[in-house]
Amino acid sequence: MVIERTDTNSLRRPAEWEPHAATILAWPHNTETWPDEMLKRVEQVFIKFLSAVAKDEAVWLLTADNQSLTKAGKFKKEPGISGSLRIIPVPFNDMWVRDTGPVFVFSGDQPRFLNFRFNAWGEKYEPWEDDNRLPGILGEKTGYPVQDVPLTLEGGAIECNGSGTLITTESVLLNPNRKNGDKAAVEKKLKDCLGTPQIIWLAGGLAGDDTDGHIDDLVRFVGRDKVVAVRSAGKSDINHEILEENYRRLSKARTADGASLEIIDLPQPESHTDRPTVDGSTVVPASYANFYITNRSVILPLYDERFDQKMIELFGSLFPDRQVIGIEARDLVWGQGSFHCITQEVYES
Q1: Which run of H or of E encompasses 146?
Q2: What is the rounded distance in angstroms from the CA atom of residue 1 to the CA atom of residue 135?
Q3: Whole-prediction pTM value?
Q4: Pairwise CA distance, residues 178 & 163, whole Å
Q5: Are 159 and 172 in contact (CB under 8 A)?
Q6: Is 95 helix (H, G, I), strand (E, B) or coil?
Q7: Mind listing the pLDDT tens digit for each residue in 269-311?
């Protein structure tokens, strides 16, 4: 069911730490993203992550083919999993449901799915038609109303604090390959559909990020006025200039409530890879900012022994009411995304 736009004053995009009704995940199957033995390797990471999420909350697990459906059916029989897992066979092109799945908002106290245009991060990877249709199909299958939004946007491009503030990057939403128009036009559409009167624009993203610079590899809210932000390791680092520009902008930013941001630095893990990725890159967007918050846990990607334990301890202090679960993610980020990129949350009404 497609619905009309409503008064923006009644709209709200929740913060990720608010209660979830479910997490949407998609079983990896794309052999162009994961060639040769990489599909089996990423499946092992995915199963560990899926198990951690499914023990905390309900999961809508999307399967695109019979082989994935069979694997998902076997996983559902694991102890403690069956009651939390809903398997939904549906066509999709790749597993990055943060970018392709529905973006949840409240209109008053009524939930809805937002259906943005998706064009594979600027028409980089064909085909993408099934991914573009995914929010509408999931709305039909689950009974959630769907609002079509005339804006090319991936969920990984926006970060919200649940109280009217949104952070994004110019390198994505203002990129000509998204065909969104100028900044004023984009801001109006964001405010109209997400209920975010305050928009903080950062410059760009990490080297090796084929999305053109998603915010969920850079800066994440960990409280209403508190963020974690990736900082450069030094002037010789490939990301130094852009990360320092982002930090300067964050330092001057204010939330919708007029508060300045408390900024907690995150280190950069090793980002070079011995095996070039599918687009030929030898750098991947490894980032501790790409964590995912469930109802009971914070699931943290691990990449680098120099920093992994320190990051587990840091996130434990930031989320004292949740368990921090660290999972090795270098095989996943080889595909140029990590744990936040493979999730999309549905909130409790």
Answers
A1: strand 146-152
A2: 11
A3: 0.96
A4: 27
A5: no
A6: coil
A7: 999 998 888 888 899 999 999 999 999 999 999 999 999 999 9
